[in-house]
Amino acid sequence: MITLAEAHTLVEKRLSTYEAFPDDDAWIVIPTSTIEREFGWVFFYDSRKFLETGNLQFAQAGNAPLLVKRDNGEIVVLGTAYPAEYYITEYEKRHAPNT
């Protein structure tokens, strides 16, 4: 089992491998948007410049939320065509414990 802090660190490491921005911009996790569920957490992120300025010219499109599994720290990339809740619900349906 991993903690929220460990999951956050895993996501930051993953984001550091994503395409770099010009002018020293970077991908930043939005901690206030993190969703916690029984399976783990879903993290959202955007460019540092957008988060600092709110200027839409720095906002990024296509940054799929990252789901981190609580039991082993595996990162699952969710989709972007639908709202995040859709992907979370679908994940929960596919990975529900057998009862």
Short description:
The chain is α+β, with helices and mostly antiparallel strands and 99 residues long. The protein is built from three helices and six strands; from the N terminus they run αββββαββα.
Description:
With 99 residues, the chain is an alpha+beta fold. It has one domain (4-94). Helix content is 29%, strand content 20%. It has helices spanning 4-15, 48-53, 84-94, and strands at 27-29, 35-37, 40-43, 45-47, 66-69, 75-77. The strands form 2 sheets. It has a 4-stranded antiparallel beta sheet, covered by helices on one side. The longest helix is centred in the first third of the chain and has 12 residues, at 4-15. The radius of gyration is 14 Å and the shape is globular.
Spell out the key features of this protein.
single chain; 99 residues; alpha+beta; 4-stranded antiparallel β-sheet; 6 strands
Task: Lay out the secondary structure.
Elements: H1 4-15, E1 27-29, E2 35-37, E3 40-43, E4 45-47, H2 48-53, E5 66-69, E6 75-77, H3 84-94
Antiparallel strand pairs: 1-4, 2-3, 3-5, 5-6
